[in-house]
Amino acid sequence: MMDKKIIKDNFSRAAKDYDLHSKMHQDIIAELLFRLPKISLTTILEVGCGTGLLTKRLIESFPEAKIIATDIAQGMVEFAKKTLAPSPPNIEFIEAEGEGLPFEDNTFDLVISSSALQWMDCRKALAEFKRVLKPGGTLAFSTYGPKTLIELKELGFSVNDFPTIEALEKELPKNTKLEAEIHKIEFKNPLDLLKYLKAIGASYSQNKKKDLEGKKKMERLKEAYPNGIEATFEAVFGIINPKP
Length: 244
What we know:
With 244 residues, this protein is of the alpha/beta class. It has one domain: Vaccinia Virus protein VP39 (Rossmann fold, 3-Layer(aba) Sandwich), CATH 3.40.50. It has 9 helices and 9 strands. The strands form 2 sheets. A 7-stranded mixed β-sheet has the order 3-2-1-4-5-9-7. Strand 4, helix 5 (122-132) and strand 5 form a beta-alpha-beta unit. Helix 1 runs parallel beside helix 4 (74-83).
């Protein structure tokens, strides 16, 4: 789990360029919304709104619902506000952590989060999601699984420790079944993958405290993928309707 300040700073810096590299995120959002049951909603909480890609789709899909969009990074919140301006009166943006949501219990018909849970303590965050959800409400999320960036892991790069499906299911109602799908992104040069991760606010480590070791890892990366690299991203989806 990365330091919260690092996460905030990384994503705040990435806000202005994030949408230039967002095709996979848009595909994941489309899939998450496709899986969402056709339900009537009056209150929606989006956790980890980023630049507002999902927020925009929620406004279009549920024009009558009160929508609160949160993100830990102030830069992302401000960028989303500007991107969606003028926002309809039923949308509100708040800077907040997923593990400590500033809302009363049993507040929302839908709690939804796309490509954000992996940056949180999933146990604490899912407990908060369930706490603010109304009895019988719907929890919908997508996150990344441990196969994500396996190409970098195999070469010794330190990549975020994404939770397994089994770990996520332990924090959810019994008999919850999550599903995963693999996304691939091609990069002509392996260094372009590292630039991509930086551009979207993600993080990897070359162990900069040991410059020589870091240089060796970079050389191994270039040698392993001289003709480009097809990077793996494992998207995990969950749609949960807890019983009252």
